[in-house]
């Protein structure tokens, strides 16, 4: 079973989604309140399992509708993904991967773990 880990930072609150092996798969943006952070977690739970994948590294990739995962290359040439909610906002983003296959595995891990994860609140 995965975990949503909520952490308080100097400049807000953030959550991380970790797989069953405790490896962090993705991180949220920073939120101003715990309530907003919880809404972000709910968005991942709701959207990740049904999200399509848009590969922005392929010229012939079809544009998908939200919710969707977007795969792209960063300025260092690493593959990354983001999950966009129905309203187009980025809910979570991944670490950088050297191989596109690893990035795709990260997306599958989010889909698998999102609706089956406990919430661990490190703010208390």
Describe the model.
This protein is of the alpha+beta class and 124 residues long. Helices cover 23% and strands 37% of the residues. It is built from 2 helices and 8 strands; from the N terminus they run βββαββββαβ. The chain has helices at residues 34-47, 100-114; strands at residues 2-9, 12-18, 24-28, 52-55, 68-73, 79-84, 90-94, 117-121. The chain has an 8-stranded mixed β-sheet with strand order 4-5-6-7-3-2-1-8. A hairpin with a 2-residue loop joins β1 (2-9) and β2 (12-18). The longest helix is centred in the last third of the chain and has 15 residues, at 100-114. It is globular. The mean pLDDT is 94.
Short descriptors:
alpha+beta; 8-stranded mixed beta sheet; 23% helix; globular
Strand content: 35-45%
Nearest-integer average pLDDT: 94
Number of E-type strands: 8
What coarse outline follows from CA principal-axis ratios?
globular
* Ends distance: 22 Å
Overall radius of gyration: 14 Å
The largest sheet, given as strand count, sense and whether it forms a barrel, is: 8 strands, mixed
In DSSP terms (H or I, runs of 4 or more residues), the helix count works out at 2
Structural class: alpha+beta
User: Strands of the largest sheet, in order across it?
Assistant: 4-5-6-7-3-2-1-8
Q: Which range best describes the helical content: under 10%, 10-25%, 25-40%, 40-55%, 55-70% or over 70%? A: 10-25%
Query: Helices and strands, in N-to-C order?
Result: EEEHEEEEHE
Unreliable residue runs = none
């Amino acid at each position: 079973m995965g975990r949503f880990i909520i952490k308080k930072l100097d400049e807000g609150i953030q959550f991380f989604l970790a797989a069953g092996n405790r490896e962090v798969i993705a991180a949220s943006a920073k939120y101003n309140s715990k309530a907003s952070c919880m809404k972000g977690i709910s968005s991942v739970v709701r959207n990740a399992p049904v999200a399509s994948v848009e590969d922005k590294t392929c010229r012939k990739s079809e544009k998908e509708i939200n919710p969707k995962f977007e795969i792209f290359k960063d300025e260092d040439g690493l593959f990354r993904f983001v999950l966009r909610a129905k309203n187009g906002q980025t809910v979570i983003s991944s670490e950088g991967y050297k191989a596109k296959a690893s990035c795709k595995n990260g997306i599958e891990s989010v889909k698998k773990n999102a609706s089956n994860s406990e919430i661990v609140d490190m703010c208390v």
